[in-house]
Design a protein that fits this description.
The complex is a heterotrimer of chains A (661), B (282) and C (284).
Chain A: E1 5-9, H1 13-24, E2 28-33, E3 49-50, H2 54-57, H3 63-73, H4 80-99, E4 114-115, E5 125-126, H5 132-149, E6 153-157, E7 159-166, E8 172-179, E9 185-189, E10 192-195, H6 216-223, E11 228-229, E12 234-242, E13 247-249, H7 253-256, E14 260-264, E15 281-282, H8 284-288, H9 298-310, E16 323-326, H10 332-350, E17 359-368, E18 371-372, E19 399-401, H11 419-439, H12 450-468, H13 478-492, H14 499-516, H15 530-554, H16 577-598, E20 600-607, E21 612-619, H17 637-660
Parallel strand pairs in A: 1-2, 1-10, 2-6, 10-19
Antiparallel strand pairs in A: 3-5, 4-5, 7-8, 8-9, 11-18, 11-20, 12-13, 12-17, 14-15, 14-16, 16-17, 20-21
Helix pairs in contact in A: 1-5, 1-11, 3-4, 4-11, 6-15, 13-14, 13-15, 14-15, 16-17
Chain B: H1 11-43, H2 49-60, H3 66-91, H4 102-129, H5 135-143, H6 154-161, H7 166-192, H8 199-228, H9 232-252, H10 264-268, H11 272-281
Helix pairs in contact in B: 1-3, 1-7, 1-8, 3-4, 4-7, 6-9, 7-8
Chain C: E1 14-21, E2 30-37, H1 44-54, E3 81-84, E4 87-90, H2 96-103, E5 106-110, E6 117-119, E7 122-123, H3 126-134, H4 155-165, H5 172-176, H6 193-206, H7 211-221, H8 230-237, H9 251-255, H10 262-283
Parallel strand pairs in C: 1-5
Antiparallel strand pairs in C: 1-2, 3-4, 3-5, 6-7
The chains are: A alpha+beta (661), B mainly alpha (282), C alpha+beta (284).
The structure holds flavin-adenine dinucleotide, protoporphyrin IX containing FE (2 copies), iron/sulfur cluster, FE3-S4 cluster and FE2/S2 (inorganic) cluster (FES).
């Protein structure tokens, strides 16, 4: 058997899981990462990782229910076969991570402890203190280090992936990458390439993500012809700590333990928060949602905070959006006992004690559900066919996408603690697929033509050198461009989206993109030039930014994280039972019509000539769980549900009859 | 390419661990133990020259074996510990001026007191003991004012050697440095050997070593005071006491007569018959 | 009022930031002064971001932006270690307001001193990771297939291991350790990348592993499967550059941003070595 060689780009959970598995299968792996893999963004995840488990099973839970919750949470935009496979693999993934030494919290008897997370009724979430992502990543990092010591893996850390190397048959034959220290540009030929480069939060300037999450790698694949799907679905977390460099996550449990959200009634009141009397405070969540108060679900809290700041102009700070999250009415001892860890984070980074002064918080971009379009092969049970070479292969043959930068699993909205799972699952599951693909090829890494290598390296060298050369009229500062892009994207394409704003923003982003191509760098040296690396990544943010905006503009509906007030489905208005029933029927008709039109993946292809994405729409595989309405907080939800259930039953019967013929 | 590297390590590197553990062990036994006994012995002078002389007789009872014991159990370990100590101290780059943590200061002081001990012990042993017992050498050393201690005139020669200001000051610094070095060394050795592990245990051990250090400092200070406070008058009186004790002790066969261990002036008074008897006891 | 009130303190309009720069390995370091407009809630990362965007010194000279490393910006990734006002720490959690309280209106930034400088504040910390290989800091599982759950572990074991497992390889501990000294090998003439790499690793493998690696060794020696390599790890720790190089300065534990009980691990390693030494004597 010929020795196979695969390049894995990205050393987060997904990339490391993939590397580990491929190395076990006997494949040589070149692992490329912007940063030492142990520092990848996955370390930031705090909450946990989901799986159905022995305990929940006895309460009626099952893998199927995990599958169902995920799809329901994602508003049915998830591709069901991969999600199903993932849900059924989840317990195995946790078992494996347990064996690899992840210090999961334990019950008194020594079993893995579980907690409950959003979007489910079961305690599915395994966690390791408040640093689950870090612990999972380290366990994988250790195994990869072990494989590296055995010579199976070679790491290229502090290397920037510049693009896939695609041959004349459209097959990916390796990558071109750049050493960020010596600035050497080199081609790494491979039998297959796996992209596992995570999210793209930096397009929004500041987010809860790491500085590595520029989306540049994905964008470079996109610009090389790979398709990008569901770009417009960006998850925004309601409570983050606004910082001048990053928006750090503030866990939901602060509200769970009685935290109250408010703003001063007087805009930008200059008084210290403690000095503002109760009657001059606007507890907007409690007033607007008397029933749920501060514990409304994530997306609603997010939208309301946004609304109060942007539309009502009641932000606490004048030049920055934020509201108070107040815990000061709870005794400090109780706070320390229940929320110690997270309060320390706030104290550490804000220098303010949240036990005496209300915290300032604001929603922040948190996760991108969309990503590189990739294929899969369905099996007879409605899951994935193990080992099929096309699993997770993008439309460029031999180029795979896994982890946060794929698009299948989280639909329109990701459930908490499902992402770590999807990353590890895709990394492990695709191992045999990639190996099978490599084995099926007559040509591998050893016989990539030198002309292909030379031209690929030359193209990147040209781009690099060009950026370092001064051109007349080129005077843009990449840092300022990035700031402008981030501000714009945050304003129009996060929580609430409006078509007029989106249309306007597209113009502005086109303009900014042109300016970004005319940057002038303050460092033109050939040694550890972070300036040029950053400039490239800023330039590469634009194709994705444009895809997000265009996708959002064209999707005239509300689905998951994508919210357009104009197209919000209305509550039932009538009190008369019969009329109410009629309205419910109509509501369901509209729902079905909307699904026929919009229950589709947005698939973008980059048109380099026009410098714009071209969108098409692709059906979503909903074969296992038919879509149903999410009725949270809607007036008349019971009636709609009743009508919907009757319809679903009728449809089922019809199908059964059709099947028996 | 496999990343594992198997360098050809030198003998030193391969056995560094064992050598360092030996260094640590020798610091405690025999050196630490010796120092405790030694200081106690010297402090016994406070009780008068008789007590001190008795202790010295006891120490010197092995007679001709003594140099062997000295070299085997004290000088050799000391030199080993000292040479290695200097080497160890040089492997570190003390940064106590940058990081002011108490334990870091202690670390630095362990090194400084080591160096002080080195200088102190070299001169201390030269000063009183003289290092070697070759006749020719001793003569020279004595002319230079070294090897001044005569075990059979223990108190008087010791006190005589400690007159003035220079030696007493030198001794005070040296003794205190040694005390710190041992007390703190015990604490670090406990970590090195894995005796105290948790921060709480280390804290407790630290207190224990502090108490031990203070105790030893008191003993050391007493020894020092006992040696430096008496004047000419006491010396004269004590020489007589010692000579009397010598006569009796040799009579009883408790002491191996050895002129080198006595003051020249005392030696002249020794009656001849005594020497005959010595040959018998030998 | 009890709460920290940034507005109440008088702050300068501008902060002076002195940066120790170095253009590349082997080049001469030099100092450069930058001025950054004061804002509340700044941290050192945001100061550096502003310096990068401006790229102009206090006296108006255009310069290349200062190179530095950062990632998570929330003190979990370990990227952003540097010496700030003479003390090693993470720059993302170094708040300007607190620094100003310490030192007036000047902030001094220097690269770590125990690693070769690549450029400015960016250093090569490969040796930190190499140390993890030396102590085999992993669980030697048979395979990555589904083999059912791992062994049950008592809560007390988890509680002992979890703190150790939070080590983010930032290097603060080794930077502050007086026994950890810099290894920087100049490249020889015509030396190939691979030969150089090899020479570097050899040098790293003989030098002090560092408290973080000792702690990782203890972490895995306390894992039901990790134990399988326990004696190999102790062998590594008693080999060249092992625990014997520690001089119990205990700075490591004082500066560790994750408050990892490093000195406890060192003492545990010391005990394991003692036990193993005795065992070996009597088993041979
Ligand atoms: C604050 C926060 C908390 C979270 N909490 C949870 C949680 O509790 N549960 C949960 O399930 N999910 C959580 N998530 C989401 C989850 O952490 C991420 O989705 C997941 O870690 C992504 O992993 P990944 O392997 O896909 O990518 P990443 O971990 O982002 O890794 C990307 C890798 O790609 C490399 N890379 C990127 N670009 C390039 C390039 N151009 N060249 C070379 N290499 C490149 C990087 O260096 C890195 O190694 C959270 C996210 C955030 C922001
Ligand atoms: C003569 C010069 C001496 C020098 C240069 C010296 C130097 C040192 C040094 C550098 C250490 C630290 C070793 C380490 O941390 O690994 C040390 C430890 C120690 N020394 Fe000395 N020393 C000297 C004399 C003595 C003497 C006379 C004693 C006994 C009284 C002594 C007892 C100890 C002890 C008990 C330790 C602790 C060992 C450990 O931590 O494991 N030393 N010495
Ligand atoms: C006030 C304090 C001290 C006094 C009065 C003192 C006195 C003496 C005397 C009188 C001798 C000569 C013994 C002989 O030759 O038989 C001697 C030897 C010696 N002393 Fe001290 N000493 C003091 C402190 C110390 C300390 C702190 C140490 C450290 C370990 C030390 C180590 C030694 C050694 C190693 C010898 C030589 C060994 C021998 O042959 O006895 N002394 N000291
Ligand atoms: S032990 Fe602490 S200081 Fe050392 S590398 Fe780990 S986290 Fe950093
Ligand atoms: S600072 Fe260094 S000397 Fe030992 S106790 Fe820590 S490793
Ligand atoms: S940037 Fe991650 S620790 Fe500071």
């Amino acid at each position: 058997m010929a020795q196979h060689r695969v390049v894995v780009v990205g050393g987060g959970l997904a990339g490391l899981a993939s590397t580990m598995k491929l190395a076990e299968l006997g494949v040589d792996v070149d692992l490329i990462s912007l940063t030492p893999v142990k520092r990848s963004h996955s370390v930031c995840a705090q909450g946990g990782i989901n799986s159905c488990n022995d305990q929940t099973r006895q309460l009626g839970d099952s893998e199927w229910k995990h599958f169902d919750d995920t799809v329901y949470g994602g508003d049915f935009l998830n591709h069901q076969p991969p999600v199903k496979e993932m849900a059924f693999w989840a317990p195995k993934v946790i078992d494996l991570m347990d064996r690899l030494g992840v210090p999961f919290n334990r019950t008194g008897e020594g079993f893995i402890d579980r907690r409950r997370f959003g979007g489910t009724l079961y305690k599915r979430t395994a966690f390791a203190g408040a640093t689950t992502g870090q612990q999972l990543l380290y366990a994988l990092d250790e195994q990869v280090r072990r494989q590296q010591a055995e010579g199976r893996v070679k790491k290229y850390e502090f290397w920037d992936f510049l693009g896939p190397m695609v041959d004349e048959d459209g097959r990916c034959r390796g990558v071109v990458a750049q050493d960020m220290v010596s600035m050497e540009i080199r081609a790494l030929p491979a039998d297959a390439v796996v992209v596992a480069t995570g999210g793209c939060g930096l397009i929004y300037g500041r987010s809860t993500m790491s500085v590595f999450c520029t989306g540049s790698a994905v964008s470079r694949c996109f610009q090389s012809g790979a398709k990008y799907a569901n770009g417009e679905f960006i998850q925004v977390h309601p409570t983050a700590i606004p910082g001048s460099d990053k928006l750090r996550l503030m866990s939901e449990s602060a509200r769970g333990e009685g935290g109250r959200v408010w703003v001063p009634k007087k805009p930008h009141d200059v008084r210290a928060p403690q000095e503002i009397p109760d009657k001059e405070r606007y507890y907007f969540l409690e007033e607007r949602y008397p029933e749920y108060g501060n514990l409304v679900p994530r997306d609603i809290a997010t939208r309301e905070i946004f609304d109060v700041c942007v539309n009502d102009g009641l932000s606490v700070d004048e030049n920055r959006m934020c509201v108070y999250l107040d815990l000061t009415h709870i005794p400090a001892a109780e706070l320390d006992r229940k929320l110690g860890g997270i309060l320390e984070i706030y104290e550490k980074f804000q220098g303010v004690d949240p036990r005496v002064e209300p915290m300032k918080i604001f929603p922040a971009v948190h996760y991108s559900m969309g990503g590189l379009w990739a294929d899969y092969v369905k099996n007879a049970d409605g899951g994935l066919l193990a080992g099929a070479p096309r699993n997770h292969m993008t439309n460029i043959e031999g180029l795979y996408a896994i982890g946060e930068c794929d698009y299948h699993y989280h639909g329109a909205n990701r459930l908490g603690a499902n992402s770590l799972l999807s990353c590890i699952f895709t990394g492990i599951f695709t191992g045999s697929s990639i190996l099978n693909y490599a084995q099926g090829q007559s040509k591998g890494h050893a016989d990539v033509s030198s002309s292909l290598i030379e031209s690929a390296v030359a193209a990147q060298t040209q781009r690099h050198d060009d950026l370092l050369t001064s051109h007349s009229g080129y005077d843009e500062n990449p840092y300022l461009i990035h700031q402008e892009l981030g501000d714009l994207m945050t304003r129009v394409a996060t929580v609430v989206r409006r078509n007029d704003q989106l249309t306007e923003a597209i113009e502005k982003v086109n303009d900014l993109h042109e300016r970004a191509m005319r940057v002038s760098l303050s460092d033109t040296g050939q040694w550890t030039n972070q300036n040029v690396i950053f400039a490239k990544s800023v330039q590469d943010m634009f194709p994705l930014a444009k895809t997000i905006l265009k996708g959002a503009l064209q999707r005239d509906e509300c689905r998951g994280a994508h919210f357009k007030p104009e197209f919000q489905k209305q509550s039932l208005t009538s009190d008369d039972p019969q009329e109410r029933r009629r309205q419910a029927e109509q509501w369901c008709d509209e729902f079905e019509a909307n699904n026929r039109r919009y229950l589709k993946s947005t698939v973008a292809e980059w048109n380099a000539a026009e410098s714009t994405p071209e969108l098409t729409y692709e059906d979503v595989d909903t074969s296992s769980i038919p879509p149903r309405p999410r009725l949270y907080g809607l007036v008349g939800a019971e009636v709609i549900e009743e009508v919907w259930n009757e319809r679903a039953k009728a449809a089922q019967e019809k199908e059964a009859v059709a099947a028996s013929h | 390419m496999s990343v594992s590297v198997t360098p050809e390590t030198s003998f030193w590197l391969r056995h560094e661990f064992a050598i360092r553990r030996l260094h640590s062990l020798l610091g405690i036994v025999p050196l630490g133990l010796y120092m405790v006994i030694h200081l106690l012995t010297n402090a016994s002078l406070l009780n008068g020259p008789e007590t001190f002389q008795r202790s010295v007789y006891l120490i010197h009872s092995p007679g001709k074996l003594l140099p062997l014991i000295e070299w085997g159990f004290i000088f050799a370990p000391l030199i080993f510990h000292a040479v290695l100590g200097v080497w160890i101290a040089r492997t570190g780059r003390s940064n106590a001026s940058q990081y002011h943590y108490a334990n870091n200061q202690r670390y630095s002081w362990q090194r400084w007191t080591g160096f002080i001990a080195l200088v102190y012990l070299f001169f201390h042993i030269l000063h009183l003991h003289g290092w070697f017992h070759a006749e020719l050498y001793l003569e020279l050393a004595r002319q230079l004012g070294f090897a001044t201690f005569r075990p059979y005139n223990a108190a008087s020669t010791l006190v005589a050697a400690m007159q003035g200001y220079v030696w007493p000051a030198f001794y005070l610094v040296g003794v205190m440095a040694c005390v710190y070095h041992l007390a703190n060394g015990l604490w670090t050795a406990g970590i090195t050997w894995g005796l105290w592990i948790s921060p709480q245990a280390q804290e407790r051990a630290s207190k224990l070593c502090l108490v031990l250090g203070i105790g030893l400092a008191i003993v050391g200070a007493s020894a020092w005071w006992a040696a430096v406070s008496p004047g000419e008058e006491e010396i004269e009186q004590w020489v007589e006491v010692e000579n009397r004790m010598y006569d009796v002790a040799t009579e009883a066969g408790l002491v191996t007569p050895n002129p080198e261990k006595r003051l020249e002036s005392a030696e002249e008074e020794v009656p001849d018959e005594v020497e005959v008897r010595i040959t018998v006891t030998d | 009022m009890i709460a920290l009130e940034p507005n109440a303190k008088s702050r300068p309009d501008f902060i002076t930031v002195r940066v120790r720069r170095q253009d590349g390995p082997g080049k001469h370091p030099y100092w450069e002064t930058h001025r950054v407009e004061y804002e509340p809630e700044l941290n050192v990362i945001s100061v550096l971001q502003r310096i990068a965007a401006n790229a102009t010194t206090a006296d108006g000279k255009k310069v290349a932006p200062v190179a530095w490393d950062c990632g998570c910006l929330e003190e979990v990734c370990g990227s952003c270690t540097m010496q700030i006002n003479g003390r090693v720490r993470q720059s993302c959690s170094a708040l300007v307001d607190k620094l100003l309280d310490e030192s007036g209106d000047e902030i001094v930034l220097e690269p770590m001193s125990k690693f070769p400088v690549l450029r400015d504040l960016l250093v090569d910390r490969q040796r930190l990771f190499r140390a993890l290989t030396r102590v085999k800091a992993w669980v030697p599982v048979d395979s990555y297939y589904d083999m059912g759950a791992g062994e049950r572990q008592l809560r007390s074991a988890q509680e002992q291991n979890y703190p150790l497992s939070q080590c983010m390889s930032c290097g603060c501990c080794v930077e502050a350790c007086p026994q950890y000294t810099k290894i920087e090998l100049p490249r020889l003439d015509q030396e190939s990348d691979e030969a150089y790499e090899r020479r570097k690793l050899e040098a790293y493998d003989e030098a002090f592993v560092g408290p973080h690696a000792i702690s990782q060794a203890m972490l895995f020696n306390n894992h039901p499967t990790g134990k399988a390599l326990a004696s190999e790890r102790v062998d590594a720790l008693t080999g060249p550059g092992g625990i014997q190089a520690c001089g119990n300065a205990q700075n490591c534990v004082s500066v560790c941003p994750k408050e990892i009980p490093l000195t406890t691990s060192i003492a545990r390693a010391g005990r394991a070595a003692t036990v193993q030494m005795i065992k070996k004597w009597f088993e041979k």
